[in-house]
Amino acid sequence: MHRYQAGQADRRAMLDAVGCASVDDLFATIPPEVRCGALDLPSAHSEEEVRREFWAYAGANAAPECFASFLGGGVYGHVTPAVADALLQRGEFFTAYTPYQPEVSQGTLQAIFEFQTYVCQLTELDVANASLYDGATAVVEAVLMAARTLPGRRRVVVAGALHPDWRAVLETYCEPMGVAVDQAAWGEDGRVDAAALERALGADVCAVVVASPNFLGVIEDLPALGKVIAASGALGVHAVAEATSLGMLAPGGSFGFDVVCGELQAFGIPAAFGGPLLGFFAARQTHLRQMPGRLVGETADASGRRGYVLTLSTREQHIRRAKATSNICTNHGLMALAATIVLSLLGKKGVREVALASHAKAEYLKAGLRAQGTGHRARLAFPQSPSYDEFLVLHDDPDGLLARLKGEGILGGVSTSQFGASWPKGILVAATERNTREECDRLLDALRRLA
After folding, report:
1. Which of 341, 369, 390 is the C-terminal boundary of a domain?
2. At 336, which helix (H) or strand (E)?
3. What is the DSSP letter of 239?
4. pLDDT tens digits for 2-61?
5. Would you call 426 helix, strand, or coil by DSSP?
6. Beta strands of 254-346 (E only): which ranges?
7. Rounded to two decimals, what is the model's pTM?
8. Can you spell out the DSSP letters for 163-211?
9. 20 within a domain of the structure (yes/no)
10. Which domain holds residue 299?
11. Of 161, 152, 137, which is closest to residue 73 (Cα–Cα)?
12. Which of 21, 103, 258, 350 is most buried, judging by how many CB atoms fall within 10 Å of its CB?
């Protein structure tokens, strides 16, 4: 039988086995409006032809360096030393899999152990896991851990302005588990009032999630909120979207929070169209056995030599998902290594310098906006509230303003209009140590003329 005929016969046999008349029947459940149909693909090209075509596409792109960028909204542009990428591209690091065999994985295990150590130092908590996918899933894992720890409580309270994408991921996970997600609203100053949070709590709340700096850029009163949460018996979760803030602001671990988690993208991971990202998770020692994911511990071998192993993590954590406390089945090792390298290069002093420089650039911009007066179309949303390196500028047409700014080579920020009418209409402006004084002045001048 001809090979083509044999292939057709095999296809027919498989379709008959599953009860389909044609291959199209396999896709009948997909709505017609989202099917791509037959692809009109060109004829085959040689490697060199394909290479030339893609270089032509690349030439049409505008390089990030062509713009003064003030983008934020959950992903931030910070300086990454060249040596970090050079180390990260070494062949032995190109794996995301968990190092099951310690005897051949000491380098990887030690790198993960150092990552955990840095996270503990940043958060001022006792233990940290290997890594999570991103800040959103880190918050989810914190809430799931709280639900396991306090099984009789089936409600979560999000205190104030958690990133809307993170909130959506949290609701997606909680809904099938029968865990309700409520919100304690933020006030006119962009912060959650401790008394308002206290009224929102009850004996059915297993976790309270507080984002600080929050999605609006405002720093929450963590000491006051931490006391209210502790009195309720719920687990306090401090969610951090901009990790460099921990170089300047005390973390929730200092104020009684049980978990500090969030996003470490700012250390060594480029924006790259929004990913990949890097979640982190740290908790108090009392929650060690309920923590998600991997933990690497330091030990000694039979000869007394220092070594590293996975600890307090069974095989069920990796392959028998029904029995796992967490369904994180891949260690985000390459991204964790990137953050570890950058944190090693910066050190404690360097992390603080990055934070202070980023804060100073943002404060310079805020001072310039205040000087324009409250009657200007572009105005600060919360002029009296503390912020770190990001703040909200109110404007009636944020998308139109951003388009005009882009025409002058400025990526002015992130429009809140894409997140729904529940958010104030405006632009989230983020300034980091990468932004120069000249770029800040260009943005202020453009806002005066174009807003």
Report:
1. 341
2. helix 333-371
3. E
4. 555 667 889 999 999 999 999 889 888 899 888 887 788 888 889 999 999 999 998 888
5. strand
6. 259-263, 279-283, 296-300, 306-310
7. 0.87
8. -HHHHHHHHHHHGGGT-EEEEE---TTSS--HHHHHHH--TTEEEEEEE
9. no
10. 82-341
11. 161
12. 258
